[in-house]
TrEMBL record:
<dbReference type="InterPro" id="IPR010720">
    <property type="entry name" value="Alpha-L-AF_C"/>
</dbReference>
<dbReference type="GO" id="GO:0046373">
    <property type="term" value="P:L-arabinose metabolic process"/>
</dbReference>
<comment type="similarity">
    <text>Belongs to the glycosyl hydrolase 51 family.</text>
</comment>
<protein>
    <recommendedName>
        <fullName>non-reducing end alpha-L-arabinofuranosidase</fullName>
        <ecNumber>3.2.1.55</ecNumber>
    </recommendedName>
</protein>
<keyword id="KW-0378">Hydrolase</keyword>
<comment type="pathway">
    <text>Glycan metabolism.</text>
</comment>
<dbReference type="GO" id="GO:0000272">
    <property type="term" value="P:polysaccharide catabolic process"/>
</dbReference>
<dbReference type="GO" id="GO:0046556">
    <property type="term" value="F:alpha-L-arabinofuranosidase activity"/>
</dbReference>
<comment type="subunit">
    <text>Homohexamer; trimer of dimers.</text>
</comment>
<keyword id="KW-0326">Glycosidase</keyword>
<feature type="domain" description="Alpha-L-arabinofuranosidase C-terminal">
    <location>
        <begin position="290"/>
        <end position="490"/>
    </location>
</feature>
<keyword id="KW-0119">Carbohydrate metabolism</keyword>
<dbReference type="InterPro" id="IPR017853">
    <property type="entry name" value="GH"/>
</dbReference>
<dbReference type="InterPro" id="IPR055235">
    <property type="entry name" value="ASD1_cat"/>
</dbReference>
<dbReference type="Pfam" id="PF22848">
    <property type="entry name" value="ASD1_dom"/>
</dbReference>
<dbReference type="Pfam" id="PF06964">
    <property type="entry name" value="Alpha-L-AF_C"/>
</dbReference>
<dbReference type="InterPro" id="IPR013780">
    <property type="entry name" value="Glyco_hydro_b"/>
</dbReference>
């Protein structure tokens, strides 16, 4: 067994858009209440935001955060979340069947996003509402002043506009579970008309239209094709969502699921370009993979949750080591599509299917998946290089010819750094690798970080970080050839400077 990889500074895919390392906070479970926001917690700041959580989010270097939903946005009245807190209504939150107190709303979230150094990707409600609510919200957030909604914002203590640049036209409108679910035709029309009105309010914004909630949806890819055809001139991005799981406890098959993501991305690119050709357009639609993660561990527990409570522990997946490996492969998949995938959001960020967990009134801690996400976000900024990879392969239940090795690499010209991301999916054997780096003359090996565990099902807890990065000291760089030993079942980050 042996793998080889060639990287050349001239074999470039594209500049990585930092926003592929985005994430998502929905008003769901304990993401907001008891997650990012917990007044009374010893770590709470003057606005009630937990400083310990802010620090963990900053470690991930998250550039953009989608908000406020998710399914929740499709029945959300954004006006409920502005103005004096004591006057805000409590509402039945229909998507997750909880009580929404509206203590946190648009302005508070924008404040929090600033604290963590992220932009906001705001979603509008195209389920129960439409053009009017969307254009009013945009006027509230982005118009400088002198009009009803912008002056209302100023009266709420926000003199300057928030200038939110990126907007999602609804959420998963293809899904029958979505409140106000729409056929592709219905959605394409409302997306176009809402987008048109929003760009009249602020022509500098960028719009993301819903695509499919997963590549398994029966309406995929026709939903994309129809939506794009009806709203092509208004939209800039089409959204993709997909969650992965290991329900049948078949790890080799589970670890191959980045191939599903790869296929999904390629199919959406093809659909976008078909409509581009059909419309004789010069504009190229970009992809926003704005919900992705492993999600299945908490499915049964969620069925036991009583409706109509505040911030119940919904969607609290406890991630294990093999989940972290797949997350690594999914991140590599984004790098390999850096020319078209310009935004992505790990769903979600805190407590709800999340890399960061909190205890109510207690500690916060890092799940296994925190680490590959952090490594990619921190070191994966620059130009994505085309990996010329030769890897032994395996077959699994659903996939054939699965490379044991996944490889992605980023060249940061400014900092004169190269970072190579590798997953070894072989569960029994280490993989020797030769990496040809001869075009990077004068570069030296800084470190080889690895995430390994003898137990694929190992999880982290508040008390014990069973899965955490360590150094692999076996790699050597000699004459431009890096020889590495990738431990069995491992996530690897090889840094050169
Ligand atoms: O992220 C959890 C949920 O998954 C979101 O609310 C929804 O958009 C998707 O189905």
């Amino acid at each position: 067994l042996k793998a080889t990889l060639t990287l050349d500074k001239n074999y470039q895919i594209d500049k990585v858009d930092d926003r592929i390392y985005g994430s998502f906070i929905e008003h769901l479970g304990r993401a907001v209440y008891g997650g990012i926001y917990e007044p009374g917690h010893p770590e709470a700041d003057e606005q009630g935001f937990r400083k310990d959580v802010i620090e963990l989010v900053k470690e991930l270097n998250v550039p953009i955060i989608r908000y406020p939903g998710g399914n929740m946005v499709s029945a959300y009245n954004w006006e409920d979340g502005i103005g004096p807190k004591e006057e805000r209504p409590r509402r039945l939150e229909l998507a997750w069947r909880t009580i929404e107190t509206n203590e946190v709303g648009t302005n508070e979230f924008v404040d929090w996003a600033k604290k963590v150094g992220a932009e906001v990707m705001m979603a509008v409600n195209l389920g129960t509402r439409g053009i009017d609510a969307a254009r009013n919200l945009l006027e509230y957030t982005n118009h400088p002043g002198g009009t009803y909604w912008s002056d209302l914002r100023r009266s709420h203590g926000y003199e300057e506009p928030h200038n939110i640049k990126t907007w999602c036209l609804g959420n998963e409108m293809d899904g029958p579970w979505q409140i106000g679910h729409k056929t592709a035709y219905e959605y394409g029309r409302i997306a176009n008309e809402t987008g048109k009105a929003m760009k009249l309010v602020d022509p500098t914004i960028e719009l993301v239209a819903c695509g499919s909630s997963s590549s398994e949806m029966p309406t995929f890819p026709e939903y994309e094709a129809t939506t794009l055809d009806l709203a092509y001139d208004q939209i800039d991005y089409i959204s993709l969502h997909q969650y992965y799981g290991n329900r049948s406890n078949d790890t080799p098959n589970f670890l191959a699921k980045n191939l599903t993501m790869d296929h999904f991305i390629k199919s959406v690119i093809a659909t976008c370009d078909y409509i581009k050709a059909k419309r004789r357009s010069k504009k190229t639609i970009k992809l926003s993979f704005d919900e992705w993660n492993v999600w299945y561990h908490s499915n049964d527990a969620d069925k036991q949750i009583e409706p109509w409570t505040i911030a119940p522990p919904q969607l609290e997946d406890h991630y294990n080591f093999e989940d972290a490996l797949l997350i690594g492969s999914l991140l590599i998949t984004f790098l390999k599509h850096a020319d078209r995938v310009k935004m992505a959001a790990m769903a979600q960020l805190v407590n709800v299917i999340a890399p960061i967990m909190t205890e109510n009134e207690g500690r916060s801690w890092k799940q296994t998946i925190f680490y590959p996400y952090m490594h990619a976000s921190v070191y994966g900024r620059g130009i994505s290089l085309k990996p010329i990879l030769s890897s032994p392969k395996y077959d699994s239940r659903e996939f054939t010819d699965v490379p044991y090795i996944d490889a992605g690499a980023v060249y940061n010209e400014e900092n004169e750094e190269v970072t190579i991301f590798l997953v070894n999916k072989h569960l029994e054997s280490a993989m020797p690798m030769d990496i040809d780096l001869r075009s990077f003359e004068g570069y030296e090996l800084v470190e080889h970080i690895e995430l390994v565990s003898d137990d694929l099902k190992a999880v982290n807890t508040a008390d014990h970080q069973a899965v955490a990065p360590q150094q692999n000291t076996h790699s050597k760089l000699d004459g431009g050839i890096l020889t590495a030993h990738l431990s069995k079942a491992s996530w690897n980050v090889i840094r050169l400077r």
